[in-house]
Design brief:
about 900 residues; alpha/beta; 4-stranded antiparallel sheet; 4-stranded mixed sheet; globular
């Protein structure tokens, strides 16, 4: 039974009700169905510490558009949701919360801390999921996963053991990125390089056995306590005689060699560089090449270590000041200069990263990177836009071994076990009860946890039941497309690709779509510090979900940022109202019975709109296949507004209002057919309003979500009727433009003479006479072969194959228009006289600013020009009278 729509569309009354209904009826659930082709997307799992922001809104709307489209195309479409445990972020928040209670991790121990972590997850973990519901996301919530759930944890252990047994995972001492605040190692990808104002400190070391000094510059004087060499370029003649000698780090009275290394740039600074192997990655490489010792002068919390001597326990900043003071006293400090340079900070807590030499767990990347590179180069893996693919390739071709251990408790604990008695280490999925080498039962597990991205890298297949060969895994893997942001290409995309190939022998997905940021109206990145962030939930509360989704998808293009304007959201809301009101108009004209029509019943106007929407379906499908979502939604938007509402509905009104018209039924059937097709094309973008209208305008199907996606049908390609109606539209638009130029009110009707020597053109106007007269404001339409009987003063417009004439007197009341123009000419003459008088006033001209005088002269020229046009119009009226 068809339902009547409310007068106004109120998203607050519709969206929550429909979403609850969708969940209840499990419309989002996907089944293994061998009669259908699968289509799979795995959600980039948001952190359990997360809050919905515009990035989430874009990312998830884009995925929802694709999954809803494929669901309507008949695929068994799975959008698999879940959340990430986010080791560092979550642990940081819990530690901060405990600090307010005066409690530390060490106070309560690992077990109690993990109890708190799971309580946090249970309390906050579903927050962002509930917010995603507000976006209308059609994820299969029955399959929701969590990176620390039992199945995914098993997959993580399986991969770790496999890679270790293959020799790809190893434990060793290397220089890594260390966060003193989080007290954990972090990967290169987790380090942001931020430009900071600082100083470059110029220092000199005495050269032993000579009266000479060697000068260098550093931004971190506190690290000179760990210097073990001074390096110069072997080709630098200034220092050739010093290579092999030693210099003294006076503060700690340490003699260090002067070495030659091609890494040093002769033109940069003094051409001499201090080498601190354990506090700089480049220095570390030099240290390896020259077999230099390493000295760590920092503790895990960023304070100075026992190697710093009298500075032990000081903060980095305090030690810097004290060391500079001592260097000054020794006459070794030269100067400091202001600079701006990039400083590595932890992207989670913004603390300055310290390169530290530590024993960690690593993954060898060289061999696993090769098939991931080949997959992209061969075209098997596609990345949109192309420049994002170059980022992917650059990262892989320059990849270094991946540090996967984290000094955290919240996460997947490394499955390595140590025997305290014999020192044997064993890697195993199952915790051993005794040492496999000596049999001692005093076996302890490694304290470290795995990098969060280790488990995230397995997401496309671990979520489907791997390593077991589940039905879901066999059917839905590999997935089809990954949608993610630019900043995690190397964090996540790269790692999923090489992990998928290594563990399953298949790419985890075929296509990767990289989307940009949503910036504010001024193009600035949204941030708390700028106070320019916009909460998607606020937009939804004010305008509704569909308006937000429509706005975001209208502005999206692969890899490019977009600007958020409230006016765009208002325009989207206006579009929703346009569809709603158009539907109400259609429904008001329906009878009790369902409209029906045969092809022979259709008029040229009916065939024209059916043909146009037929082509639209093909174009929109093509744009979606190319991931050109903005083009797809914009083309549909324009069609609804222009072709359907502004043209076709107006064309058929006279037929609808005349119950005796034999073509009325055909018009109603066409209206319903076209409207339903438009709703289907819009549904992926605007799921709520399209569902509400779909349920109201038809009763054959219970939801639009599984209604068949419109496809192009050659039998609906009405080329001739499209040409005919296009001709009539051209004529109507030309007439409207002419009337607008002449300021003719829409209420003023004019007789129309359509003149054409083409019988075909005359027949087109004859067939379309009813709607032509209504839309062209015609009192009467005369169609003839020549100009016989047409008044000489008739105005005309010319279109392809015809001319249309309108008697001048029908358009203009000559007497009233003459009176109006005479008044306007008198007003302009008065204005010119006023300006002339002011410009002739010597007092005004001598005292007024030049800008004001020029403005008056410009006014005079404008008034004269306007008067000339009025005179021309008066002369034209005389000629036509």
């Amino acid at each position: 039974m068809r339902r009547e729509l409310e007068k106004n569309y109120d998203p607050q009354q519709v969206e929550d009700r429909l979403y609850a209904e969708w969940l209840e009826k499990k419309y989002f659930h996907a089944e293994v169905d061998e009669t259908k082709e699968p289509y799979t997307i795995v959600i980039p799992p948001p952190n359990i510490t997360g809050q919905l922001h515009m990035g989430h809104a874009v990312n998830n709307t884009l995925q929802d558009v694709l999954i809803r489209w494929k669901r309507m195309q008949g695929y068994s479409s799975l959008w698999l949701p879940g959340t990430d445990h986010a080791s560092i972020s979550t642990e940081l928040k819990i530690v901060e919360k405990m600090a307010k209670e005066g409690v530390t991790k060490q106070d309560i121990g690992r077990e109690k801390f993990l109890e708190r972590a799971w309580e946090w997850r249970n309390e906050y973990g579903s927050k962002i999921v509930n917010q995603l519901h507000k976006l209308g996301t059609s994820c299969d919530w029955d399959r929701e996963r969590f990176t620390l759930d039992e199945g995914l944890s098993d997959a993580v252990l399986e991969v770790f053991v496999r890679l270790y047994n293959k020799g790809y995972i190893y434990r060793g001492e290397k220089l890594i990125n260390w966060c003193p605040k989080c007290k954990t190692s972090v990967s290169d990808a987790e380090v942001d390089h931020v430009d900071c104002d600082s100083f470059l400190y110029h220092i000199k070391y005495p050269i032993n056995g000579t009266d000479e000094f060697i000068q260098f510059a550093t931004t971190r004087p506190e690290t000179i306590l760990g210097d073990t060499a001074i390096a110069v370029n072997p080709k630098d003649e200034r220092y050739t005689h010093l290579v092999g000698k030693t210099a003294t780090v006076a503060i700690v009275n340490r003699k260090i060699p002067i070495i030659a290394d091609n890494y040093v740039e002769m033109e940069f600074g003094t051409g001499a560089v201090k080498i601190t192997p354990y506090h700089d990655p480049n220095d570390f490489e030099i240290g390896v090449r020259h077999n230099l010792p390493g000295i760590c002068v920092l503790n895990d919390d960023g304070t100075m270590s026992h190697e710093a001597g009298i500075y032990e326990g000081m903060t980095r900043e305090a030690a810097r000041d004290a060391i500079l003071e001592e260097l000054t006293n020794l006459g070794l400090f030269i100067k400091k200069e202001k600079i701006t340079h990039a400083v590595g900070v932890h992207e989670r807590c913004n603390d300055v990263i310290e390169p530290m030499n530590k024993t960690q767990w690593f993954v060898k990347m060289e061999e696993m990177a090769k098939p991931a590179i080949d997959a992209y180069k061969s075209g098997e893996l596609r990345i949109f836009p192309e420049r994002a693919g170059k980022t992917y390739l650059h990262w892989l071709e320059n990849i270094r071994d991946w540090c996967i251990s984290r000094q955290l408790w919240w996460g997947h604990r490394i499955p390595a076990y140590y025997c305290d008695k014999c020192g044997h280490m064993e890697v195993s999925k199952v915790a051993p009860t005794a040492c496999s080498k000596c049999g001692d039962t005093n076996v302890r597990q490694d304290e470290d946890s795995l990098d969060t991205w280790f488990s995230s890298a397995l997401w496309p297949f671990s979520t489907l039941g791997w390593p077991e060969k589940t039905k879901d895994f066999e059917y839905f893997y590999p997935t089809n497309v990954l949608v993610t942001a630019y900043d995690i290409i190397f964090f996540w995309v790269v790692r999923m690709v090489f992990s998928g190939i290594e563990q399953t022998g298949k790419l985890p997905f075929k296509d990767v779509i990289i989307h940009g940021l949503v910036r504010d109206a001024d193009g600035r990145k949204m941030s708390k510090s700028l106070g320019n962030g916009i909460d998607p939930l606020d937009v939804i509360e004010k305008y509704g979900t569909d308006a937000l989704r429509m706005t975001l998808m209208s502005g999206i293009s692969a890899g490019n940022d977009q600007r958020f304007h409230w006016t765009k959201v208002e325009s989207s809301r206006n579009f929703l109202n346009k569809i709603w009101n158009a539907t109400r108009f259609v429904l008001m004209n329906f009878d009790e019975s369902e409209p029906s029509a045969e092809l022979s019943d259709l008029t040229a106007a009916d065939k024209w709109i059916l043909s146009k929407v037929n082509t639209l379906a093909k174009d929109v499908t093509g744009h979606l296949e190319d991931y050109e979502l903005a083009l797809a939604v914009q083309k549909t938007h324009d069609f609804v507004w222009d072709e359907f509402c502004d043209w076709y509905i107006e064309m058929v009104k006279s037929r609808l209002y005349n119950r005796e018209d034999k073509t009325r039924e055909a018009a109603l059937w066409t209206l319903k057919t076209v409207l339903i097709n438009l709703l289907k094309l819009l549904h992926p973008f605007m799921p709520f309003i399209t569902e509400e209208i779909f349920k109201s305008i038809q009763s054959e199907e219970e939801t639009i979500m599984y209604a068949a996606w419109p496809t192009y049908k050659e039998e609906l390609n009405f080329v001739r009727e499209e040409k005919e109606v296009s001709l009539l539209k051209d004529a109507i638009k030309a007439i409207r433009n002419l009337r607008a130029e002449m300021n003719v009110a829409p209420s003023r009707k004019a007789k129309m003479y359509v003149v054409s020597d083409s019988a075909e053109v005359r027949e087109i106007f004859e067939q379309g006479k009813v709607f032509f007269q209504n839309l062209a404001f015609a009192a009467e339409t005369v169609i003839q072969e020549n100009k016989d009987g047409i008044e000489a003063n008739a105005v005309s417009v010319v279109i392809s194959g015809a001319s249309i004439y309108m008697p001048f007197a029908d358009l203009v009341d000559i007497e009233k228009e003459t009176e109006r123009l005479n008044k306007e000419r008198a007003r302009l003459a008065s204005e010119i006289e006023r300006v002339d008088s002011r410009l002739a006033n010597e007092g005004f001209v001598s005292k007024a600013p030049e800008k004001l005088i020029n403005e008056e002269k410009e006014k005079r020229e404008n008034f004269i020009s306007m008067r000339e046009k009025v005179v021309e119009q008066l002369q034209a009226l005389k000629l036509n009278n």
